[in-house]
Every structure is written in C-alpha cells, then in structure tokens.
Amino acid sequence: MKKLSTLILHNLNKAKGQYISFGVFICLTAFIINIALVLTFQTFDAYDDLFDELDTADVNFIIPQIQDNDNLLTEVEEIDGVSFVEKHGGVFTPVTVREFAGSDFDMNTVFYNIDEERKLNLLDVTERSEKNGDSAYIPMYMKELGGFMEGGSITYSIDGKDHTYHIGGIVLEMQYGNYGTGLIGGYFPKEVYEEFADEYSNHAVTEYSIKTTENADLSEMKNVISEMIKEKRITLLSINDRAVSKQTRTMVCTLLIVIFLAIAAIILVVSIFLSNFRIRSAIEDELAQMGVLKAIGYTSNMIIAATVMPYVFVGIIATVIGIAVSYAVLPFVAGILAIQSGFSYTPAFDIMAMLIVVLILTLAILLFSYISARKIHRLEPVNAIRGVVGKEAAGQNILLFIVAFGIMVLLSFAGTLLYNVNIKPDNFMNTLSEELPSVIFTTEDEKMAELKEILQKDSRVKLFMEYASVPVSYTDGSLTAFVCEDFSKVTNDICYEGSSPAKDNEIAVGNALADDYPIGNEIEITVGSQSEDYIVTGYIQSVNNAGAVCQLTSKGYEKIGEKTDSVNVYLYDKNADEFIKEYEENYDTVVKSSVNFEQMSENGQMMYTGIVSVIVIILFVISVLMVLLVMYVIINSMISRRRQEFGIYKAIGYTNRQLTVKTAFGFIPVVAAASVISAIAGLWYLPGIDNVIFSLIGAVKNQFEVSGWILIVFAVMFTAVAFGISVLLSAPIKKITAYSLLKD
Amino acid sequence: MNKQIVISAKHLKKAFGKGESIQVIYSDLNIDIYKEDFTVIMGSSGAGKSTLMYSLSGMDKPDGGEINFDGMDITKLNNDKLAVFRRKECGFVFQQIYLIDKMSLMDNVITAGVLTSKDREDIKNRAEELFSLVNIPEKTWRKTSAQISGGEAQRAGIVRAVINNPNVLFADEPTGALNSANSAAVLDVFTSLHGKGQSIVMVTHDKKSALRGNRIIYIKDGKIFGECDLGKFEQDNIERTEKLDKFIKEMGW
User: Fold this and answer.
1) Among A43, A301, A397, A400, whose Cα sits 20 to 30 Å from the Cα of B158?
2) How many CB contacts within 8 angstroms connect chain A with chain B?
C-alpha cells in the first residue's frame, strides 16, 4: 500500500470533483441506511426494554367484574406457560374524547387507579403537572397525537355526560398506550378513580395480567384462555398480547424502515453505476498513462488497487460522515415515530449499525469498482501506449438511462404518495381506515326512521346509511365489528378477497383471521351471552385494529346484539361543522349525539400527511441531488474527453452559448426517454410497490391511484430540471479556447 | 576486449493481424545487446524498430523465439513477473514523454522509485541528484508536465526512467516530439548517462540522435540488415558523422 500511496493520492487529487460527487452519494446512502438500521435495532429494543422495565404482562384479558371469581384466577394460574397472574380492577367503557386533535374522538377506554399497587403493567408518569386536584393521567399517544398537555384538561364524554379533568401527567405504559389495539388507557388518582368507578359500576371490569414462561406460545395461550372464558360463559371484552401490541405500535416505524431501505438501495445502485462509469472513463482517458505505469513496473493488480482504493477511501469517509449526520436527524425521526407509537426514546450511537453500514458499503464499492477496473488486467502496455486498444464506449448513455429511470422511480413513488395524500387524501385515509363519512349521528332506536326521513330530504346529503363499530368476540378474543345495513352502499370497500356480507348469516372477517377461517367456513360471534354462527364470505383489512375486525349486516348483528343507533352521513360539500350545528338546533329530539368525522379524518390525515410529507421532501431532495451529481460526473468527464472537439467548434465560430445548449440538449433524448418509459412503467410497477409497502402495515388492499398525468408531469419536470442542471454544469466549456487546443 | 552481452534474442518472431491481413514484422531475428553500449536501432518507418525494442525490454511478447536478459528468459515470464522484471532491469523513455499529468515531476519520479526502494527519502535524494544531472532546477520539481517545456518534461522522463538504476535504458524516439534545442539537451543527458556506464537502447530515425550511439543497428525486412560501430561519441567529430552517413546510405535510407 505504501508503494501505491503517491499514485492513490494523485488519483484522488486529479478528480476531486468526481470523488466528491461519488462521496455525496455514498454519504446519502449511509445516512439513510444508518437511520433505517438504528430504527430497526433500537425502536423494537427500546419497546422491549420499556416493556421489561415496566414489568408489562405478556397477555392481558379483560372481563366484566361481575363475572369474575376466584376459581378463574386459580385456573388461569394453572395454564401451561403461565408464570404469574395479577388482577387489576378497572372501568371499561366507550368514551368520546372531546377536542382530540381538535375534534371529538370515540375510543374504547379502560380506566385504572394509578395509585393501586401493581407488580405487572407498571405505569410510569414521565411528565407531571405541578397542579393537584381532579386529575387524569393520559397515555403519551393522547399527548402526541391528540394534542393534550400535562397541566391542561381533558374531557371524557360517557353516555352523553361530560367529565372534565385536569391532566396531572403523561403516562408511559406498554399495553393500552396506543389506540391501534382498539383500546386506550386512562388513569385517575385513587379518590378520583373511586368516585368514577362508583358512577360507572356497571362498566367495572377485571383485567388479568399474565406473565408467561420464556418460551410460551402467546397465540396458543390466548386460545386456551378464550376457550376457558367461553366455557364459563364469561364475556371476553378484550384480550391482547405483547406481540400484537408491539406490531401495532411500531407500524409506522416498520413502514419508514422499508421506505428508507428502498431509497438507499436505489441510491446505492446509482452510486455503483456512477463509480463504474467513472472508472471505465478513467481507463479510457488514461490508457497511455496506465500503459506507462505497466512499463515502469507496476503490476495490473497494483494499478487496479490504485484505481479502486480512492473509491474505497472516499466511500469509507463518506460513510462515516453519513452515519454521523444521521445521528443529528434520528431524534427528529424518533419524534415522528412517537406520534404513532405512543412511546418515545432517544436513539443512541449504535456500533453494530455502523459496522454493518461501513461493511456493506465498503464491500459493495470494493466489489463493483474492482469489477469495473479489472479490464486493466487485459491492458498490454505497448498497446496502451500506442493507443491501439479498442476503445469501448464508456456507457454514458446507459448510465444516464439507468440513473434517470431510477430517479424517476423515486419521483413516481413520491408523486403517487403526494397525489394520494394531498390531492386525493381519501385514497390514503381509505387505505388506513374504514368508512369516512362527513358526520356520524346517533339516535334513539325509535327515532331512526325519522332521522333517515329528514336526511333523505336534505339536498346537501349525498348518502347516508346505518353504520356502526361495535365490540364483539370470537373464540380467540375480541373483534371490532363494522355493522352496516347495506354493504353495497359503502364508500370504502375494504374487502380485499371474496365479498362483504349481504345476508344476515354472512360475515367478512379481518386479515388477522384469514388463515384460520377460510371463505365458506363458519365462525361463531358472541355479544354478551348471545352467540351465532356466520358464514365467512370474504376478508377485510383494518390497519387500526391489526386485522382483528369483521363486517356484519345490521340484521345479522341484531341476532346477537341490540339494534345499532348510528348513521353515517356523507355530504356533498365540506361543511360538517355547520351541518351538525343545524341538526343539533333543529332536530335535537332526533339527534342524540353527533361526531364531526370530517374534522377527525382531517386530524388523522394531518398526522400521516406530516410523516408522508417528510418522506416526499426527502425523496425530492435526494432526486435533485442525484441528478445534479450524476450530470456533474457525466458532463465533467465528457468535457474533458471532448476538449479538442470543443476547441475546434470554437475555432470555426461556435459561441459558448451555442456549445453549452448543444451539450445540454445532447442528454435530453436519453433522460426524456428514460423518464417517460419509467413513468409509463410506473403505471404497472407502482401499485406493486405500494402493495408491498402497505401490506406490511396490514393494508392488504391499498386504495392508491396511480395517476398517469402526475407521472408524465413529473417526467417532464424531471427532464426540464436535468436540462437546466446540464446547462449550468456545461459552463466550463467557456474556459476551453481555440488557442488552448493548439497548446494541448 | 570482449563485450558482455546483456540481452541476447534468438529466432524472434513477431506478426500483427491474422489471416490475409497478417503483417509479419520479423520471422527469425537474432540480436545481442552489449552492456554499457549505446545501441541505436534505425530503420525505415514500419520496419519494426520499436516492436523489437519493446520485445527486448519485456514490454511486448514476441510470437516466438527467446530473449535472454542477463541470464533470464523473459519470454517465459507472465505479465506480473514481467512487470517486476521491468521495474528492476529496465528504464523507458517515450517519444510522447507520458509523464503522469497533474502529478509533479518529483512525484512522477517517486512513483517509479517506490517500486524498488522502501526508503522514500533515499529516492528523493537520488531524484534530486538526477534532476541536477539533467539540468532541471529545484523550482521546477514541484511543477506538473503541463507547466514546463517539452524538453524539460523529457529530461524529467529520463530521470524517472533511471531512478531505479536500470540495467538497460530503452528510449523510443526520445527527441521525436522536441525542437532542436530541446533535443540537443535531451541527447546530452543520454550521452552523459552513457558516459557513466549506462547501457542504452534507443530507437530513432534521426541522424543527430543516432550519432550519440556507439553501435548502430539497421533493420530492414524483419532482419538485422546492417551494423555499424561508430565508437565513442565526440562532439563535432566529422569522421563519425561521415561514417554514419555512409552506413545509412548503404542501408538504403
């Protein structure tokens, strides 16, 4: 290596710009991969650490307190794999949280006494208000997403009665700290809790928190518990385990990791093509010099090493810089994740992630630059000096095509995200949720017909239907049932296989149940003490409930439960607020309560729009940077190779402007062809990419539209940007003079 | 006094192309190069002068025959061993000079020097001596080839060629790209090196360059067509000049 140091330094020095552009690519790749790896290594571990720190139970189930008895505790303790069981008293009830991110939000909530001594499911009050009094403690999820703060207030509305509490603090806990599981926690100090529990004694529940032995099968244990509960004719209000909770709370993290890795892969491929192009150009440009090096005694391997090592050195330095910079951004990324996950942690330096990034990138650079440089082996010194080696095209157009195609893939993905989140947000929200009405009205059973008649006559109403989300249970636990009078009327078809139920003995089940309940089989659904078998007609998706959902017709549900009392109202215009006010004033005897779902959707959309916007901005910046760097390498290499030609053009009277534009235009056919082909191909590949990414978070059937127009507009914009950048980068042509040609 | 053979080539064959377009350069060429000689290879364009020189120096492989270089048959060596052989035994000066561009003259020399010596300081010291020998002032050592004249660049090329004390210094038309003043300066360096005992093989079609040699070999039709012993170079020695004129005239120049 010492022998090669002069040569390596010389190579580095003579093409600084090229190595810097290559370094920027690698830096970007390392930056993104390191973020993805640190998130992979630390988010899930942080979750597990917090889980252990708070002695969280591996399985929790909730039953009505009235149905609980001492025998059940003994029997649960005797289940194979159970190491410890602790019971907690609580109040389980659907509530409407007022002003959750600016709107009312219905949530199934389980309230606990925060002062109760516990060995399992410990509650960590991370932020505490100095003020005392009627306090409620809320999960971090409510703070991050709902916008509540310690010291502020929160209003829970139960059965139409509002309870307002001062927020005493933010609670970190690992079981009911995210509504993705369909159940959120709420906590009161002893006295407040006792008063609350007295008022809602009919909603009193017992939570069984179970710690399992190390290798216990959580899914199997949930089945055993469900069977036992069913045999005893006890209502299972909720059952969950650590794996499902973890999956739900780390959903966005998983999504980000996949997107980051995909971006990093594209940039890495471009970097490799870039280094390949640069090395091949260098071999061609410096053929004679390589011949001289061979003549004076350098072996092929030494010359290859001197060619490859600058890339490796630059790659390692750029990788380390990329990793270092990523740590400045990671707390921000972790903050975004906390909005959805409901728990926060500070990403720490991760030596393993660093080693993996350095190793992967170094090996990739070493391997691919060696492959590009190995033709030096075949270089005969005499032929090289005489310049009789057959010159191969350095693959400029191929590189440009591949890079333009790759960048257009990124832009198409970003454009599709932007289109479906900003321009047609319903597509995005429909992918992540179920029905998106403008307003939800609840009414008394006997007033339903009257309400429907009023809605029928209202010209602002586009559509209305009886639709409700109700808790039901099945053998393995609880489900959220979407009950609708007619599923052919729904605006968001979440059925991804088979069909939604049409008859009262039919059911469509969520993706979490798909493996166990094939279409055509029966599933027993229970509400309270009533059970009924339904035939599975199809599978539906649900991101928020981790697939533990089902669809029942209103008539089908009424076989086991009471008639639902809510109506989804879809308006032509976005004026739900005004609409609700008018109905509450004019039809107060008909409308029992109302939810501005339009506002709620917008709030939910806001959270995801924030995350998606960050991704889209990152993709745009990366794309422009990639165009800039690739064009720099190509144009720089081209100007250097065609120096003489430009000198001749100038000698015969071409102006700088003519040559610059002529050069920039030279790239346009390839860039335009690649971007248009990529855009057209995007119509085919983008749904596939979207499907893969969204299926990771449970959205098996995503509602994304791929807009051909958006892709074409992006392709045209991309070509225009590439042209503009080419014109700017071609500026050094000005420095070439006809006189310098003679001097050369 | 018997001269010591440093290179002995027997039955050399070399051709370019294949089939009908084959061009035979030489089919059975034999030549000996002597130690401390300044051998000049002359001949018409396309006669195979450079091809022969590059074969003798292990830069190019002949199609047949053997080349014994100081006791070693270099035709048997693979490419890497040939590279190692060249760095120890040969120095090269090219018509187009071929200094590594954007690299200083000193670094150009060091790049060659580090191949045989681990002591960078030692290489630098020797490079400085050689730069002085070829009249390149210190202020020029850190300049690149683009910043100096062709003559200076070629003299730096010679320093690079001799930094490893080569057994034989090969030069292919070393003054071909230079004006007469620069050519004379470069040739003076060759004469000076020869005076210090350096074996040199030079290909040229320039009479003034050829006069610097003591042994002239003329190649024609792929064979050694003639040979002339000019004796030691002396400036303005008319007798030597006439002898060379006569020789090349006989050869059909």
Assistant:
1) A301
2) 78
